Amino acid sequence: MARRTDAHPDLTRPEAGAPFFSTWRVGDALRQKQTVEAIAGTWERRPWPTDDLLGYYVYTGQDATTLLHYSQWRSEQAYEAFAKVHRQERVDEIDTAVPGIERLWLGRYRHYRSGVRQGDTRVPGCIVIVDVEFEGPDPDRQRAWVDAVFEALESEPTPHPGAMSAHFHLSTDGTRVLNYAEWESARAHIDALAAPGDGIGSATELWHRVQTWPGLKSTGSVSRYDYALGLVPD
Question: Does this model's pTM top 0.90?
Answer without folding.
Answer: yes
